Amino acid sequence: MTEHTAAAVAAAIADQLAHPDQAPTAATADARRQHLAHGPTDIALLHIERAAAGLAPWQRAHDWLAAATRQPFTGGPDSHPFYGVPALAHAVACAADQLPDSYRGGLALLNRQVTADARRRLDAAHRRIDAGQLPALAEFDAVRGLTGYGAFLLRRDPAGPETQAVLDYCVRLTKPVTQDGELLPGWWVPTGPSGRPDDRFSGGHANHGMAHGVGAVLALLALAARRGTTVTGHHQAMRTILAWLKRWKAPTGRGTAWPYWITRDELGSGRPAASVPRRPSWCYGTAGLARAQQLAALALGDTGPQADAEAALLDALSDRAQLRATTDSGLCHGFAGLVHIAARVAADAAPAAASQLRATIPALLTVLVPPGTDPGETAALLLKDPAGAGFLDGAAGTALGLLTAASTEPPRTAWDACLLTA
C-alpha cells in the first residue's frame, strides 16, 4: 500500500508540474533555468522518466525541454555538469535514449561542447599534477568536475577516447603526493569543503562525499569497469580508494559509517574525531559511499567489500540516530535519496542482503508519504517547500526517488547517472 501511495504522490507532483506555463514561478525562473538542481531541465527529467515508463505523455517532457532552451545555454569555463550545456546534455540524452529521432541533432551539438569542455579541464588537471600542486574539489567532483563529465561521457561513448582520458585522470588522482614533507592522497585538497580557505581546515582535507569527494571517483571507475571500459591502473586505483575508506570507517554503535572528510589533524592522529550521528545521505554519508563501494566490489569480483558495503547501508537505514539526523525529503541529503539508493543497492546485492534492504524501504517511505496521505495535498506541500520543484532537494527529485521505490523495475532512463549511482 505504501508503494502504491508513493507512486500516486509522484504522479501528483508530475501533474502539478505538467506544463511550464502553469508551474510555480521558481520552477522556470531565468536565474535558475540552466541549473540541473532546480530549473526546467531537471523537471524535464521527471517527465522523461514517466513517459519512458508509459505513465504520462511525452509532450510534457518536450514542453519542459523547450522551456529550458528558450535562451542559449552557457558552455566553456563557466559551465559544469550541473550547470549550462552539460546539464542540458544530460536531460536531452535521457530523452534521446528513448526517442533518438527527435533529439539526435541537438544531442550531437551538445556532445561536441561537453567533449571540448572535458578536454580543456583534463589538460588543466594534468598541468596541475605535473606541477606537484593539490587539486581543487571542483576539478574532480561530480557536481562541478571531471567525474561529472565522465559520467556523461561513459553513457554516450563508453570506450571512446574522451571517456578513457577521464578514467586515466581518475587513476592519476589516486597517486599520492608529497606536501610539506608529508605523503597525502592525490585527492587531498588545500581548502575546506566549501572550496574556499577555512581556518577549520588549515591543512586542507580529504573529502569522502559522492557530490564533492573521492566517493564519486570510485563510483565512476567502478561503473566504467562494469561496462567493460578500463585503463592502465584502473583496478589498483579502485583498491587504493577502497583501502583508504576501510582505514577511516568508524563504529556507530549499530554498524559502521564514514566521516564526511578527514582533516590534517585527523590524518596525523590516525583516527577521525568523534562526532554526533550524521545523516546517511547521497551527497555525504553512508548511503552514497556504500553504493560506490558496492559498485567497486562488484567490478573487482570481491565479495568481502561488497558484503561490508551492503551491511553498512543496512545498518544506516535501520539506525534511528542516523535517520533522525535526516530532516528533509530530497534526493541529495534526504529520504528520497535513501529510498532510491536502497533500491539500487538491493538490485545488485547478494540475495540475503537484497531482501533485508528491500524490507527497509516501506519504513523510509512512511516518512516521505505518511499513512493516510492525500497524494495531491502532499504534492502541493512539497512544491511549497523552500526547496521548491528542483531535482537535488525539491519535489521533482523526490518524485523520481518515489518512482524507484514504488517499482519492481529499475528506472527506465539514466536520470540518476549524474548521481553516479548507476
Model description:
With 422 residues, this protein is mainly alpha-helical. The chain is built from 19 helices and six strands. It has helices spanning 2-16, 25-28, 40-52, 58-68, 85-98, 100-130, 137-140, 146-156, 161-173, 214-226, 234-248, 264-269, 286-300, 303-318, 320-324, 335-348, 351-368, 375-384, 395-406; strands spanning 177-179, 182-184, 205-207, 250-251, 256-257, 261-263. A two-stranded antiparallel sheet has the order 1-2. A two-stranded antiparallel ribbon has the order 3-6. The protein has a two-stranded antiparallel ribbon with strand order 4-5. The longest helix has 31 residues, at 100-130. The chain starts with a helix and ends in a 16-residue tail after the last helix. The relative contact order is 0.13. The model has no long low-confidence stretch (mean pLDDT 94).
Quick tags:
6 strands, 57% helix, 422 residues, mainly alpha, two-stranded antiparallel sheet, two-stranded antiparallel ribbon
Indicate the topology.
Layout: H1 2-16, H2 25-28, H3 40-52, H4 58-68, H5 85-98, H6 100-130, H7 137-140, H8 146-156, H9 161-173, E1 177-179, E2 182-184, E3 205-207, H10 214-226, H11 234-248, E4 250-251, E5 256-257, E6 261-263, H12 264-269, H13 286-300, H14 303-318, H15 320-324, H16 335-348, H17 351-368, H18 375-384, H19 395-406
Antiparallel strand pairs: 1-2, 3-6, 4-5
Helix pairs in contact: 1-18, 1-19, 3-4, 3-5, 3-19, 5-6, 6-8, 6-9, 8-9, 8-10, 9-11, 10-11, 10-13, 13-14, 13-16, 14-16, 14-17, 16-17, 16-19
